[in-house]
Amino acid sequence: MNLSPTTPTIETFPLERPLLRQRTRDAKLARQRAAASLQFFIGGEENRLAMFVCQSDAMIGMAQPILLIGPSGCGKSTLALHLAARLAASMSLGGDSTAVKQTVATDFAREYAEAVAADDLLPLRESIDEAPIVVIDDLHSLTGKSPAQNELSVRIDRRIAAGKPTIVTSKRLPSETRGIRPQLASRCVSGLTIPIHLPASESRITILRELALLRGVPLSDDLIGLLNAGLRPELSVLALDAAIKQVDLYCRMNSCPPEIAAVQSAINSAGQGDDIDLGKITRVVAKIWGHRTKDLRSGSRKQSVVRARSLAMLLARQMTPNSLDAIGDYFGGRDHSTVLHAIRKTESLLEQDGDLSRMMHEATEKLAA
Predict the structure, then answer these.
(1) Which among 276, 280, 283, 335 would be 20 to 30 A from 367, CA to CA?
(2) Angle, CA of 366, 192 and 199, to the nearest 5°
(3) Does the pTM exceed 0.90?
(4) Rounded-to-integer distance, Cα 356 and Cα 216, Å
């Protein structure tokens, strides 16, 4: 059958996983690996570059380090381990549990601090320098930890000079992450950078279908399409799997086959807990700016507080159903015209101010997580 140019192409490849001697202690990543039920990666146009690189031995070995960037739940860690496994196999180390050293950036920072306190940095440095392949997860979590960043910069430099593969994951480009030092950012982007995106519509349909088969939930194509349409955009595979489990739970509780009501139950369940209120927005923005929540709700005219408050007002307008009057009342009893002025000014500044734009992106990402 001839496919038209507009027909979406969905590709898959089996996920390879290295033999690891030490599992990461990061609870989030551990849960993700435990829940990652699909043994292959499914991608469409949104992840065409990642699909190509992950299946190309020449591309994998072309440049170091390899940096995978993307939102939480997009599969960065899974693909990092896949790439590590491919590299280990190419180095005839596929069955060696010491071939790949995986660590979370926060664990590295903690181990570095402990080594400094004990005046015994050599073992930590050797564990990074001598490992054939190193995977460093969640680089963005090193924000504000300058000593650990400086140490990691040196370690990556040593590995690059020695020709040893290093794979790094981060939510966003290190150069666009507040609190990541330029030295470390430049090291991480000096090799191959691969953006990873959450599954788009056609990929989601395929993933939902595969998850339904895996869970033994006999969903028709019509019900799969209904479920896909009802779920909010940009969900991780874990969230899609949770929706399938919710359909299964509904059917078991009501002793019925999959039906529209079961799908609607999953859609409703996926929306629970996702409501963003003014308090959450204020807390997130205040933390990013280094202020207290009460500062943003006060009458302070300190410039940094005003900018943070205005950004919080903009996010409140975009992400909540609150009126301008309600937003103004929450932020210190301001009237709707003051709120509108602050929002419009912030929107204008976002087009010119790179730092403010990065803060907006960071806040939005944290609120959507």
Answers:
(1) 335
(2) 45
(3) no
(4) 47
* DSSP symbols for 309-326: HHHHHHHHHHHS---HHH
Q: Which residues pair with 11 in a beta bridge?
A: 43
180-186 average pLDDT score: 93
**3 state DSSP class of 196:** coil
Confidence grade of residue 268 (pLDDT, cut at 50, 70, 90): confident
Taking the CB of residue 147, how many other CB atoms lie within 10 A of it? 11
Asked whether the beta carbons of 84 and 167 are under 8 A apart, the reply is yes
Query: Both tokens of residue 245?
Result: 């489990």
d(CA 62, CA 165) in angstroms, rounded, equals: 10
Among all chains, which residue has been given the structure tokens 């000079």? Answer: 161
199/207 Cα distance (integer angstroms): 9
At residue 24, φ and ψ (nearest 5 deg) are -65, 150
Is residue 348 classed exposed, middle or buried when 0-12, 13-18 and 19+ CB atoms within 10 A define those classes? exposed
pLDDT of res. 156: 96
